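SAMPLE LOG
Freezer: B-3
Tube label: C17
Construct: single chain, 420 aa
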Amino acid sequence: MGRAGRVALLSLTMAHCMVHVYIIFFTPLLKTIALEFGTADYHRIGILATYVYAAYGIGGLPAGLITDRFGGKATTVASVALAALGALVAGFSTGLPQLAVGLVVMGFGASLYHPSGFTTLSGILGTKGVGRAMGVHGIGGNLGQVLGPLVTGILVLWWGWRAPFIIWAVPGFIGAFLAFRFLPKTAESKDSPGREAEPAGGVVRAGQASAAETTGLPSVVFIVLGLAASQGIFTTGIFAFLPIYLQDVRGQLVSTAAFTVSLLLYGVGILGQLLGGYLADHVSRRLPLRLGTLASAVVLVLIPFASPGFVLTAAIVTLGVAFFILQAPITTILADVTDPSRRGLVFGLLFVSQFTAGSLAPIAGGYVAEIYGLNMLLYLLGMVAGLGWLFSLFLPGEEKPAEALTTLVTHGNIGGKLGR
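STRUCTURE (predicted):
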């Protein structure tokens, strides 16, 4: 990757960081906000989260079309600036209607980023090293998810729940300016439109290429979208309710729950991003998807039985790796099989499927938790993760376990390999 590509990757990674701050930093505050406005049942808390996640999901499809029409730079700048504006509105809200407007604007602004970011990134890279770069880019999201709750947990102790919204708006506006200043206007793919990608792990077949010519999209895209929808449900459900579970079931303070989620789930997720990108490039696109969904299903079902201390910590750490190992191979597969001119649309469909489905998790999860308890919610989310694993079984491709094992043993340091 040349200098221009590295600068673009850095700019996109920084923007990705801020977008993920905006979709996660508020979750430890939901119960506190609901109490201030006179309600604290799980269903109402879920509705507050749904304002963000529904807007985040619904905005994905027009974001893809906007990216294809106006380019990644303009869409990325608009994304971060709008999300920052929404945070500011929410922070200064005087009632639930104004708070809802702020949360919706924040979610919609954040929704514009992913189709533009992944389209721009895949265009810069072509097919070589896409999985690695997607993993590095994904680290920006994890850093945002680490910093968001972590800083929020500190700010809420000193200045209350409004301070995080107002203060987090500032780096968002700075990030929008930096994207405007340094992100290239265009990023043309190194692949010609007629060239068929050749991914690691053999995901794309000649038959799928002909299917793309007749239907517009290869069949593997729809399998990935189904997996992504299930991923959206179980990850968004955990993002919204794990901090509340730690407070109400495990007895943690709001600041402690924020630190726990920030460091153990999102922080460790950086390893998942690196591992997912490495496996997607060097072993198989399918393998990290199968491992991540299966591990998520098992751990979600077992968390209610985990004893406090080491076992619960290990469960949350495992969940962090399992959640975030999925993103790089999902986006890499779609980059493999999609014509560069249509990637904005396809990545838009990806994030619509992920987060429109995911937006159902807070409101439906709140209803389940209010009637049957938070443990039952975890069981149901584990079942949805199991559905994602079933989707992964239908992904085409051939794996080479012996070669994969040799690669892992030979290179050893995954992080070092990715940094090359």
